[in-house]
Amino acid sequence: MKQTLFQRLRHWARALKQEVHALWLAARDPRTPWLATLLALITAGYALSPIDLIPDFIPVIGYLDDLILLPLGVMLSVRMIPAEVMLHCRAEAQAAASRPVSRVAAAIVILVWILAGAATAWFLLR
């Protein structure tokens, strides 16, 4: 069965997300050298940040940082981190990805934020 381009891109994006999570875990591991820790934190932070180096609304080049810089940062970080650390962190990231997601808990958190915002607005406008 041949995968469509969309399915392959979706699989690649999930794998990249899991690798970024593994990098975050590896950066916090004491066996990781300090330079690798710094690069892994920068890479994971950039991947998770809503702010891009080049904004996505710019045609074509807006996505180049996501398609080139992020995978390069991940690749370089992985090469600098000891293999046994990455193996352990990848297993942790995979276990975290397979945990069930609670939509009820997410709804409760969102409701708490809405209530906190409403209470703040009420307090400030009073």
TrEMBL record:
<dbReference type="InterPro" id="IPR010652">
    <property type="entry name" value="DUF1232"/>
</dbReference>
<protein>
    <recommendedName>
        <fullName>DUF1232 domain-containing protein</fullName>
    </recommendedName>
</protein>
<keyword id="KW-1133">Transmembrane helix</keyword>
<feature type="transmembrane region" description="Helical">
    <location>
        <begin position="34"/>
        <end position="51"/>
    </location>
</feature>
<keyword id="KW-0472">Membrane</keyword>
<dbReference type="Pfam" id="PF06803">
    <property type="entry name" value="DUF1232"/>
</dbReference>
<feature type="domain" description="DUF1232">
    <location>
        <begin position="38"/>
        <end position="72"/>
    </location>
</feature>
<feature type="transmembrane region" description="Helical">
    <location>
        <begin position="57"/>
        <end position="78"/>
    </location>
</feature>
<keyword id="KW-0812">Transmembrane</keyword>
<feature type="transmembrane region" description="Helical">
    <location>
        <begin position="104"/>
        <end position="125"/>
    </location>
</feature>
<dbReference type="GO" id="GO:0012505">
    <property type="term" value="C:endomembrane system"/>
</dbReference>
